[in-house]
Amino acid sequence: MKNLYLCGFMGAGKTTVAKALSKRLELPCYDTDDLIVLQAGMPIPAIFSKEGEEGFRRRETACLRQLGGQSGAVIATGGGLVMNPKNVEIMKNQGILVFLDAPFELCYLRIHGDKNRPNAASRTKEELYALYRERKTVYRKASDAVIACRNRLAPVLNQLEQLYKENE
């Protein structure tokens, strides 16, 4: 069984979708950000403060390599994880990469003022929108499938379930 990796911008709903889908498909669920926090023994802002974004990105790649031993799992990835081509290669070798395409305004409503998101907390709305546009291009190019995400979970879960079953 292949892993199903969910990518997308901060606030797109990757973790929420991953948890709901894993219950529906009766598969294990992992969130790379949660695993990094657990392994580091400190929250993401502290990792950024202590090791910089580069240190955090190294931890993301190491986390993906560890998850490569899994099969048949739903994995929510951090918003910037796909920006590293090495990470994309790891995910594509282990499963299916799906871009959860949520509109910027929805993402912004969810992440605005969130102190646990260093890349969001330190940027203006305009800067976040520029980052969103840059990443969206990479998400689309890297992904095996794109699923539009609005504020309704059921249609997203239905599409992901169908995609997963087609690729089992």
Looking at this protein, list some descriptive labels.
single chain; 5-stranded parallel β-sheet; 59% helix; cytoplasm; 168 residues; nucleotide-binding; transferase; Rossmann fold; alpha/beta; ATP binding; 5 strands; shikimate kinase activity
Describe this structure as you would to a colleague:
By secondary structure, the protein is α/β, with parallel strands linked by helices. It has a single domain (3-166), classed as 3-Layer(aba) Sandwich (Rossmann fold). 59% of the residues lie in helices and 13% in strands. The chain has helices at 14-25, 32-40, 44-67, 85-94, 104-111, 118-121, 125-142, 153-166, and strands spanning 3-7, 29-31, 74-76, 95-101, 145-148. It has a five-stranded parallel beta sheet, sandwiched between helices. Helix 2 crosses helix 3. The longest helix is centred in the N-terminal third of the chain and has 24 residues, at 44-67. The protein is globular, with a radius of gyration of 15 Å. The termini are close together. The mean pLDDT is 92. Monomer. Pathway: Metabolic intermediate biosynthesis; chorismate biosynthesis; chorismate from D-erythrose 4-phosphate and phosphoenolpyruvate: step 5/7. Mg(2+) binds at residue 15. It comes from Massiliimalia timonensis.
